[in-house]
Amino acid sequence: MENNIEIYGIHAIIEAINSGTNIEKVWLLKGNKGSLFQRLEQSLRQSNIPHSYVPKERLERFKNKNHQGAVANISKIEFVEIEKLLEDAFKKTNSPTFILLDGITDARNVGAILRSSAATGVNGLIIPQTGSAPINDATIKTSAGGAFKVPISRVNHLKDVVYLLKSYNIQIVAITEKAEENLFDIKIGNASAIIMGSEDKGIQNGLIKLCDNSVKLPMEKEINSLNVSVACGIVLYEKIRQQLTDK
């Protein structure tokens, strides 16, 4: 955490939230039940800020020991509301591309995905509030600037986002080794959203069922899966290849 900006204390964090500061995550002392603490919890929920409850020993690992039971990490990236992300994308192009990450917890993988996304003109990265890697220094460094070029939206539930995307007639494509179809056998639509899951758990079954297509990347039998950032890059360039072929 040495390179990140931190805020300590309940009052300070509430003020930061009220002022619109981009907060990446908040650590709260487990068992704290005070009225001010409950006010902070309510503010965190209303602002969709990720937070977790930890023992005192965890909070003592931060630089400032006078934390008063709450520590916040300020994000260096400004997150975009999902509706604005979509509106801005369609103002720029009729064939936007979006990436949804389901359960990607490695910050460097997210950074590498952002790098590929920037290189291929992706219009937005969408991540869930919980169960996702933070957009931290490691992410930014690995992205080679991509984190500042690709708009990022942090949402409560990916399922709700999929329904919203469908209302815009955006094709939803899940990349999963469980699929029967091959990536190179389908047509990726002009407006499309690609869902990538973690290498260990993959994409939630509930999400896969909502997708227009579920496809896999062809691989030799000895290899079960690719690194998620590598797989994402392959899919993005396949969409570009198809668009170039259609011209």
What does this molecule look like?
The protein is an alpha/beta fold. It has 2 domains: 70 residues, 60s Ribosomal Protein L30, Chain: A, CATH 3.30.1330.30; 165 residues, Alpha/beta knot, CATH 3.40.1280. Helices cover 37% and strands 21% of the residues. It has 9 helices and 11 strands. Strands 7-6-5-10-8-11-9 form a 7-stranded parallel sheet, sandwiched between helices. A 4-stranded mixed sheet has the order 1-4-2-3. Helix 2 links the parallel strand 2 and strand 3. Helix 1 packs parallel to helix 2, helix 5 runs parallel beside helix 6 and helix 5 packs parallel to helix 9. The protein is elongated. The mean pLDDT is 90.
The class by helix and strand makeup works out as alpha/beta
Main beta sheet: 7 strands, parallel
- Rg, please? 19 Å
Shape: elongated
Give the CATH architecture of the largest domain.
Answer: 3-Layer(aba) Sandwich
In short:
By secondary structure, the chain is α/β, with parallel strands linked by helices.
Outline the secondary-structure elements.
Elements: E1 5-8, H1 10-18, E2 23-29, H2 35-46, E3 51-54, H3 56-59, E4 70-74, H4 82-92, E5 97-102, H5 107-119, E6 124-128, H6 137-143, E7 152-155, H7 158-167, E8 171-175, E9 181-182, E10 192-197, H8 205-210, E11 213-216, H9 228-246
Parallel strand pairs: 2-3, 5-6, 5-10, 6-7, 8-10, 8-11, 9-11
Antiparallel strand pairs: 1-4, 2-4
Helix pairs in contact: 1-2, 5-6, 5-9
